[in-house]
Specification:
The complex is a heterotrimer of chains A (about 180), B (about 350) and C (about 450).
Chain A (H helix, E strand, L loop, with lengths): L1 H48 L6 H22 L15 H35 L11 H27 L15
Helix pairs in contact in A: 1-2, 1-4, 2-4, 3-4
Chain B lengths: L20 E6 L7 H17 L4 E6 L11 H7 L4 E5 L23 H16 L6 E8 L4 E4 L14 E3 L3 H9 L3 E3 L6 H6 L5 E4 L4 H4 L7 E4 L10 E7 H6 L2 H10 L2 H24 L3 E4 L2 H23 L5 H15 L2
Parallel strand pairs in B: 1-2, 1-3, 6-7, 6-8, 9-11
Antiparallel strand pairs in B: 3-10, 4-10, 5-8, 5-9
Chain C lengths: L1 H19 L4 H17 L1 H7 L3 H6 L6 H14 L2 H13 L5 H14 L5 H18 L4 H12 L1 H4 L4 H10 L3 H29 L12 H10 L1 H15 L5 H18 L5 H34 L2 H10 L5 H15 L5 H17 L7 H18 L8 H9 L5 H24 L1 H11 L1
The chains are: A mainly alpha (about 180), B alpha/beta (about 350), C mainly alpha (about 450).
The structure holds sodium ion (2 copies).
């Protein structure tokens, strides 16, 4: 009973992580839409009034970067990262689990290191305050949502790692996907 | 058969085997860019020869050791690479004092003079913003000139309402003061933008004309009397601070000698020549090279002096005495101008 | 020089080993790049660089068109464009022998003109065209092979995500690359159509005639694709003729496709939501590979690998065209293993320095453009070659009763005409270069 209760608690925690990752990816997507709109307004302003949005350039750079980081946890949970399944497509459940375990361990290691290092990146940006050219927007502020995304990526990698360890690779393996 | 012209520009690891101090120099332009071929490579050679072969400088062009150009300054501070060549303006906010040399009517027309003036001001005023790194030399290009697709400019009013690509942060202020609309865009996109008048012009030095083939797109090239320009861009060649401290005194002395006044004048000459070459190409292609009269130029000065005031007010927020810096910079440049 | 090449070789073997055990390609690149850099230069350098490296790579202005084109394609998929395109193409071509398959190719080309990705083109058009091909009793291998091959047009006809990434790596102008891709893209369409015509002549049962439709239907269906023509004209035409740069053009494209979908009431919040989530997956995956490739580049540069490889090739005594052909063949083989974007990111940083040293009598910038288009074609072939051909997998998943081997057999004719096209473009650089010269 207790074990089952703990297990379902874990499942519920995992579901919560999945839900948050999806919502966070949608927020990133809406940010991308906002960047699209800034560009459209700037272009229209340029054509109609000869007056583009002055700093559209840096809005695009910062906006897209923040959005992409927000996508990463969702990518991890939906197995969106391209893999080559030449030798592994015919493998049985056990080996499937092992492969996902290895991949998730690398993803976990990567996300932890990146979170750790980019935290120091944030401190650096505070010490040597770097801003954007036109709006004087301090870059460390962009790092706040980015670090949140990386923390979520750590959790997402943990989810796929644990699911693989429990022998449920299908919870993180989906159909093969390509960039094309 | 295949030629291998660029190979000399690529770093060779093997060749460094007998040197005692092998240093990596990282920068953002290509291996055949004038900046590498005419400035960085000759400078590296001077240092290597001056050290009698004890120093070897491997040049890594095109960000080949990773990252985007704004990261160069962090890379040298953190010791990811030993030396970088970078543009101060890539990281706005980091070099507020050095920025004084980018203001209009501070740098006027002589890059050598401005290079020497930056060296003069370095110890007293600028050093504080280069913490953790050792600038070997600071320099500028020949200065921002006005490139217009098809608008001959004689007065500030001729630029009103025009969309102009900005060169630097304060370059945007220059344009605002002239009543133009500043537009930010990466340099590689500029030719396309000019060709269909997404922008009407750009504030850049002549030196860039051949690389971007601007002679096919720009009709009017405008500068002040005696090659006077509307500000410039500041660059630095800097070494990691710990790496510098680890070098023996005699090696440090080699670097200082080969990056001293003679070299700063030489760098000024190099950028001046590149700039002259650029406008020559434009003129040959049928471009109109407009040199404003003293009287016309005075009108620009009148409009642009408030930009200097704006900068002084802004840096006050960082507890910098901008007014004193402007005066010191102008005095030093005047002293070194022939 | 040998030690540098050995470093490169060890790195490559480790990378392929990791990829073979299903480690995502992005993470495999990161691991090899990171471990290699640490071995060569110690951990401090890598750890310092990681403070800003990812942010730097994700904030490259020129790459911002990538998520925008991905979003545009994802909305287009849901906006009913594919159905209209196929209906019009079928009205014009369907009555011929093999005509329904030809219509599928033409519709793929049309969809490719608003979508930057092959896979999205293949899957979207597959949903529309496969049932029709089956209805007219096309042979399963021709039906699935046609749509899998047609999907490749998604990337050969601008806009094209892989081409954007190539341009960013070699510092080429995105606009010029898009212009250069246009004529070779049209040739691909033409070759595919001819392939089908010959195929149904040789195997008459494979592609029966479709129905001849009324003149009214031809007119009505043609009018229905006007919005696609307008969107393509504004976005790509706007870029070609320089009215705006790629980033605002991509933004306008997203905007127009969304307006089209909203206007037809085919796109609402639900569709937008799923388009955004798909965009998140694809873009996140692309940028992660980008970061992996950057780490790998740092390792290889520190190991002196690209220079050594370039020197080896230059001192090999082979004529430039033979070296070019060798590199293209290497890409085709690598295509059996990897997806096109990973390949471009993995090998172009090594191949481009080699090509840049060679003299083809074209000049530096045209060589860059020409090589880019050739590389684009051969990496795209990886999508339809066994054992891993993403397009074939996707199409096969939509028609469960067709064995994978039949689909691969169905794409083989298209594969061979693609090789023919590579030879043609290799022999006559002017085909690729005349339009950029005209418009540039
Ligand atoms: Na396309
Ligand atoms: Na393949």
């Amino acid at each position: 009973m207790a074990a089952a209760g703990a297990r379902s608690l874990l499942d519920r925690a995992f579901d919560a992580i999945r839900w948050v990752a999806e919502a966070w990816a949608l927020v990133g997507g809406l940010l991308l839409v906002a960047v699209v709109l800034v560009n459209a307004v700037s272009l229209a302003g340029n054509i109609l009034l000869s007056q583009p949005v002055p700093g559209d350039f840096e809005i695009v750079e910062v906006g897209v970067a923040v959005a992409i980081f927000a996508f990463l946890p969702y990518c991890q949970l939906t197995d969106a990262n391209v893999t080559a399944d030449i030798f592994t497509a015919g493998a049985n459940r056990f080996w499937q689990s092992v492969f996902v375990l290895v991949a998730s361990a690398i993803a976990l290691g990567f996300s932890v290191i990146l979170l750790w290092r980019m935290w120091f990146g944030l401190l650096d940006f505070r010490t040597y305050e770097e801003v954007t050219t036109i709006y004087q927007f301090p870059l460390w502020i962009a790092y706040l949502p980015i670090l949140a995304s990386l923390a979520l990526l750590v959790l997402a990698s943990l989810v796929t790692l644990v699911e693989a360890a429990r022998g449920r690779p299908e919870l993180s393996i989906a159909v093969p996907r390509g960039s094309e | 058969a295949g030629t291998f012209a660029g190979s000399a520009a690529l770093p060779r690891r093997a060749a460094a085997a007998d040197a005692k101090y092998t240093l990596k120099l990282h920068h953002f332009l290509g291996p055949t860019s004038p900046a590498q071929v005419k400035m960085l490579a000759p400078w590296a050679k001077r240092v290597e020869e001056g050290s009698g072969g004890a120093v070897k400088i491997e040049i890594y062009p095109s960000m080949s050791l990773g990252g985007k150009p704004p990261e160069l300054i962090r890379q040298v501070r953190d010791g990811v690479v030993d030396i970088v060549w970078t543009v101060n303006g890539y990281t706005p906010g980091l070099f507020p004092r050095s920025e004084v040399f980018e203001l209009p009517f501070v740098h006027t027309n002589d890059p050598a003079a401005t290079n020497l003036a930056m060296a003069d001001l370095y110890k007293q005023d600028l050093a504080v913003e280069y913490k953790g790194i050792k600038p070997l030399f600071l320099h500028v290009h020949a200065g921002q000139a006005i490139h217009m697709v098809d608008t001959p400019v004689h007065t500030p009013d001729d630029m009103a309402g025009k969309k102009i690509r900005i060169p630097t942060r304060t370059g945007a202020w220059v344009l605002e003061a002239l009543g133009a609309n500043p537009v930010g865009m990466p340099v590689p996109e500029l030719p396309q933008a000019l060709s269909k008048k997404v922008v009407d012009g750009a504030l850049i030095p002549w030196e860039i004309i051949p690389a971007l083939k601007l002679q096919d797109l720009i009709k009017d090239y405008i500068e002040g009397p005696n090659k006077a320009r509307l500000g410039t861009t500041t660059f630095q060649v800097s070494m990691n601070g710990d790496k510098w401290a680890s070098l023996p005194k005699e090696i440090q002395a080699v670097f200082e000698k080969e990056s001293g006044d003679d070299w700063l004048k030489e760098v000024g000459k190099i950028w001046r020549e590149n700039d002259d070459h650029g406008i020559e190409i434009a003129e040959k292609a049928g471009g109109t090279h407009i040199v404003l009269t003293d009287e016309q130029w005075a009108k620009f000065h009148e409009k642009l002096e408030p930009v200097v005031g704006r900068w002084v007010d802004e840096v006050k927020g960082k507890s910098i005495d901008g007014k004193a810096l402007v005066e010191a910079a102008r005095a030093a440049i005047a002293k070194h101008t022939m | 020089m040998e030690s540098e090449l050995l470093i490169g070789l060890i790195g490559l073997v480790a990378l392929i080993g990791l990829i073979a055990i299903r480690v995502p390609i992005a993470y495999a690149m990161m691991l090899v790049g990171a471990v290699g850099t640490v071995v060569l230069s110690g951990p401090a350098i890598l750890l310092s660089q990681l403070k800003t490296l990812a942010y730097g790579q994700f904030s490259i202005y020129d790459l911002s068109v990538v998520p925008m084109f991905v979003l545009m394609g994802n909305i287009a998929t849901r906006a009913g464009l594919s159905r209209d395109l196929f209906r019009a193409a079928n009205a014009w071509l369907g009555w011929m022998r093999g005509g329904v398959a030809m219509a599928a190719i033409a519709a793929c080309a049309g969809f490719g003109s608003v979508c930057g990705s092959s896979l999205a083109t293949a899957s979207t058009m597959g949903q529309v065209a496969l049932p029709e091909l089956r209805r007219y009793r096309y042979s399963p291998s021709l039906a699935t092979g046609t749509v899998a091959a047609g999907g490749v047009l998604g990337i050969l006809i601008p806009p094209s995500i892989v081409l954007v990434v190539y341009a960013v790596i070699v510092e080429a102008n995105i606009t010029t690359m898009f212009i250069a891709a246009f004529v070779p893209g049209l040739i691909a369409v033409l070759f595919f159509l001819i392939t089908i015509a010959i195929y149904v002549r040789l195997v008459p049962d494979a592609g029966p005639r479709g129905d001849r439709v009324s003149r009214e239907e031809i007119v009505a269906s043609s009018i229905a694709v006007l919005p696609v023509a307008v969107i393509f004209g504004l976005v790509i035409g706007g870029i070609y003729f320089g009215f705006f740069n790629p980033t605002p053009a991509a933004a306008i494209g997203v905007f127009l496709v969304a307006v089209y979908g909203l206007g037809r009431r085919l796109v609402g919040w639900r569709e937008l939501r799923s388009a955004l989530l798909d965009t998140a997956k694809t873009s996140g995956m692309i940028y992660l590979i980008l970061l992996g490739a950057e780490l790998l580049k740092i390792f290889m540069s520190r190991g002196g690998v690209p220079q050594a490889a370039a020197e080896m090739m230059a001192s090999s005594g082979l004529p430039p065209l033979a070296i070019m052909a060798l590199l293209l063949v290497a890409l085709i083989f690598l295509g059996c293993l990897m997806d096109s974007l990973s390949m471009i990111l993995l090998v172009i940083p090594f191949f481009w320095p080699v090509i840049a040293q060679l003299d083809f009598g074209l000049g530096a910038e045209p060589t860059k453009v020409w090589f880019g288009i050739l590389a684009l074609i051969v990496v795209e072939l990886g999508l339809i070659t066994p054992p891993v051909g993403m397009n074939v997998f996707v199409i096969n998943a939509m028609s469960r009763d067709v064995p994978m081997s039949q689909t691969f057999r169905g794409v083989m004719p298209f594969f061979f005409v693609e090789l023919l096209r590579v030879v043609l473009l290799l022999a006559f650089p002017g085909i690729t270069l005349f339009l950029p010269r005209l418009l540039g």
